[in-house]
Amino acid sequence: MLFRSPHPNQAHYTWKKTIKSEKMVESSKVLSQNLFLLNGTFQPSLLRVRELCVEASRLKLHQIKQGECYTLEQFTTVQEEHKELTCEALASFYEQVTEAVKAACEAALQAFEEEVRADGGGGQTPRGGDVEVKRSFLQQAQLRSVCKKVTSYIRVVDYIVLSTLHQLLMSSLDDLLTMFKDVPLGYKEPPTAEELAAEEELLVVAKNAVKKDTPLFQVEVYFQAPDAIEFSPSGNEFSAQLDATISDFVSMLKSRVGTLISHEAFRRYTQPVINGRQDSVEINEGFDIVGLIEENDEYNQMVDGIKTSFDDHFMQVIEYVKILEPHKTLYLQNADVDMGSQHRDARLEEWKELLDKFTDQKAMFDAIPLAASVGIFAANNQRIKDLFLPSPSRCLADIHRTLPEIGQTMASKLLNEIGRAHV
Q1: Is 39 or 230 the better-scoring residue by pLDDT?
Q2: Pairs from 93-100 (Cβ < 8 Å, separation ≥ 24)
Q3: Does the pLDDT value for residue 127 go beyond 60?
Q4: pLDDT tens per residue across span 15-65
Q5: Which residue among 206, 287, 312, 357 is least packed, with the fewest CB closer than 10 Å?
Q6: pLDDT of amino acid 129
Q7: pTM for the full predicted model
Q8: Which residue has the higher pLDDT, 400 or 1?
Q9: Taking residues 176-205, what's their average pLDDT?
Q10: 3-class secondary structure per residue, the chain
Q11: Which of 119-123, 215-219, 378-382 has the lowest mean pLDDT?
Q12: In what order do the strands lie in the sheet with 217-224?
């Protein structure tokens, strides 16, 4: 209580309440005039822009599905097809944003014209081909003020759209990085029958579940004469396509979504023609998506992380190929084996050792998986298995053919000796 008498206190309370109310009303007017979201002219357009941005943020700049394994050719084709669809979606997004913003700009100018007519003035802000209307100095100042606010609104929308594009770009890059990091590095032994059955049961229980550790890309392993095991495509070919895919992310955004502030359709709002003269207002176009990410640490770190993770996985393919070196050595040794000439005088124990040796080799070659999981890569061993597997089989067949021949020769010698002994 400030005063001893209640009347001055009541008067002070009433005065304080009135001042507070007046300030709130004034602040409300300022917010309504300057905060676009609370402005009746710009609010519908801004909400529409936000809706379009939310829809656009759900797009993906790539088409890589976990659970599918792509050859380099398939990957390239799928990305090109997806690029066309994404470009169409981005172009549609930009067009709808342009229309929404243009409607708000037109509504702001229309409100200005109605206000001018209500004050006893007249005229119409000229469009292309409209007759120019002479305006008073006050009307010129009011029109410039409206156009300044419209320009600010267009720039705000540009920042909102740019933020959405940045979010879309980083989301797509994060998808790639996550897919690469979710798959453990190195060769994964083929699952046993029990493990395979258990995995299938889990997938049945979770109907829409997708295994995250499945390979994404396929490389073909093959024997290169005279004595090398190679794989195709090479790491450089894969890396070049990955770089091209990431570059396409940026080019799609840049080519299909521009800045509204520099759009020709908005020039009449940002640089109005007043009394026959166009206002020479300097318009700063601001950043596009390329300018935003050019020196962006988050973007550069994400791209570097993707490339590093990819290279780490491909190094494991090189290591996996070394596992097939013993198979290659045996294959090359078997090429020079000739049972008839090299082992004709062998003893029975030696023939048994040869049978065991080539039987083990056959089992060893047969155990080569047709598709070996090596991180994000599936090594297709079909060609090398088709080449190596007949090698021990040929040696076994040669043994089975040679042994009867040797037996027949030895039997003939024995009969001849017996015959001579009875003479």
Answers
A1: 230
A2: 93/52, 93/55, 93/56, 93/257, 94/161, 94/256, 94/257, 94/258, 96/52, 97/49, 97/52, 97/157, 97/161, 97/260, 98/260, 98/263, 98/265, 100/45, 100/48, 100/49, 100/52
A3: no
A4: 777 776 666 655 545 544 555 555 777 888 889 999 999 999 999 999 988
A5: 206
A6: 43
A7: 0.76
A8: 400
A9: 73
A10: CCCCCHHHHHHHHHHHHHHHHHHHHHHHHHHHHHCHHHCCCCHHHHHHHHHHHHHHHCCCCCCCCCCCCECHHHHHHHHHHHHHHHHHHHHHHHHHHHHHHHHHHHHHHHHHHHHHHHCCCCCCCCCCCCCCCCCCHHHHHHHHHHHHHHHHHHHHHHHHHHHHHHHHHHHHHHHHHHHHHHCCCCEECCCCHHHHHHHHHHHHHCCCCCCCCCCCEEEEEEEECCCEEEEECCHHHHHHHHHHHHHHHHHHHHHHCCCHHHCHHHHHHHCCEECCEECCCCCCCCCCHHHHHCCCHHHHHHHHHHHHHHHHHHHHHHHHHHHCHHHHHHHHHHCCCCHHHHCCCCCHHHHHHHHHHHHHHHHHHHCCCCEEEECCEEEECHHHHHHHCHHHHHHHHHHHHHHHHHHHHHHHHHHHHHHHHCC
A11: 119-123
A12: 187-188, 371-374, 377-380, 217-224, 228-232
Q: Is 139 exposed, middle or buried (CB count within 10 Å of its CB: 0-12, 13-18, 19+)?
A: buried
Q: What is the average pLDDT value for the chain, to the nearest integer?
A: 80
- The predicted pLDDT at position 347 comes to 75
